[in-house]
Design goal:
The protein has a six-stranded mixed sheet, sandwiched between helices. The protein has about 350 residues and is of the alpha/beta class. The protein contains 13 helices and eleven strands. Helix 6 links the parallel strand 6 (about 185) and strand 7 (about 205). It folds into two domains: about 45-165 and about 250-295, Bacterial extracellular solute-binding protein, family 7 (D-Maltodextrin-Binding Protein, domain 2, 3-Layer(aba) Sandwich); about 165-250 and about 305-345, 3-Layer(aba) Sandwich (D-Maltodextrin-Binding Protein, domain 2), CATH 3.40.190.
Length: about 350
């Protein structure tokens, strides 16, 4: 009899536990877009993951892409997730490869983890201005670099713009390469970036973008390098005193999709998405350049700005020449030579 009552009590407890677990489904268990690829009706969700916040021109471009696609077809529902809400750049690319994310628009620097040749875009002091960057990326060389993505299970549809990277720090003004000596500068987890800063005399410290503000606030690092819009929209002027117009690297964004998903679209759907990616990319570039000028003006009001003279810039370039030559080992002579030739052709 005792065994019977014990068994009945255990069953009763089990029912209560199962009811409690089931009841949790209605209390915040889902996040926006957590339903995956399926949207209402016959629509398919296309989730876009970007690392920057919703004040950045890349976010504006992603919203423009959403508008263009949804104006042309009811087949897709586009959702934009900013500030690394889904993942950072590298992890988002891996999610594309696994088929657990549809679109991401990362900087090219993390792409070296998948395609080493993408490190060519990190070669310092090579692209002189935005016009040359556009010619290189929108021409044959840029198309060849996009074609490399297919072997990684990715489709590259357009080049967008992150922009020229510039230095901030909270230790001293940097007006010459000598001023970099001993500065702890946060970089991306990218060998060429790290080698370049070492060659210029700084101590490169690789760190995730999402950890950067806190690290500067706590004094773990002295400074960082990013385009003006990123510096301003991330409020780095709150924790950094000095800004230097180094323009040391031009960084593109690359618009990526999961190849398996892409291959499953109709030709009409592919055309709509590709044209939207290109048009939104043009919009992103235009806004990025406008915002870069505005951001610099705002930053100059809150930070001490140093413009680097042409003479000192030449010293910066000379210090990193060995880095460019050494990069040939990993990147290959062909891609480095093609890149430099394309730049020279359009200068």
């Amino acid at each position: 009899m005792k065994r019977k009552w014990s068994f009945m009590i255990m069953v009763f407890i089990l029912i209560l536990v199962m009811a409690a677990c089931g009841g949790g489904d209605d209390e915040g268990g889902e996040t926006e877009g957590s339903e995956g690829n399926e949207a209402s009706g016959d629509q398919q969700n296309l989730r876009i993951s970007i690392g920057v916040n919703d004040s950045h021109p890349e976010y504006e471009g992603a919203v423009r892409f959403k508008e263009l696609v949804e104006e042309q077809t009811d087949d897709f529902n586009v959702e934009v997730y900013h500030s690394g809400q889904i993942a950072d750049d590298r992890a988002a690319v891996e999610m594309l490869q696994l088929g657990t994310l549809e679109i991401t628009i990362p900087s090219t620097s993390p792409m070296v983890n998948f395609i080493p040749e993408y490190g060519v875009f990190d070669l310092p002091f090579t692209i002189p201005n935005e016009e040359v960057a556009d010619q290189v990326l929108d021409g044959e060389f840029g198309d060849e670099m996009l074609d490399m993505l297919e072997d990684q299970g990715l489709v590259g549809l357009a080049w967008w713009e992150n922009g020229f990277r510039n230095l901030t720090n909270d230790t001293r003004p940097v007006e010459s390469v000598d001023d970099l000596n001993g500065l702890n500068v946060r970089t991306m987890e990218n060998d060429i970036h790290m080698d370049a800063w070492s060659a210029m005399g700084a101590n490169p410290t690789p760190m995730a973008f999402t950890e950067l503000f806190t690290a500067m606030q706590q004094g773990t690092i002295d400074g960082q390098e990013n385009p003006y819009p990123t510096i301003e929209t991330s409020n780095y002027d709150e924790v950094q005193q000095y800004l230097s117009g180094t323009n040391h690297v031009y960084t593109p964004f690359v618009f990526l999709m999961d190849k398996e998903l892409w291959d499953g679209f109709t030709e009409e759907q592919q055309t709509i998405i590709e044209e939207a990616a290109l048009e939104a990319g043009e919009y992103n570039r235009e806004r990025n350049r406008e915002v870069a000028e505005e951001s610099l003006e705002t930053l100059q009001e809150n930070m001490e700005y140093s413009e680097i003279s042409e003479e000192e810039l030449e010293r910066f370039r000379e210090s990193v020449e060995p880095v460019i030559e050494n990069s040939r080992t990993d990147l290959g002579d062909e891609v480095v030579d093609r890149y430099l030739e394309e730049i020279e052709k359009h200068e």
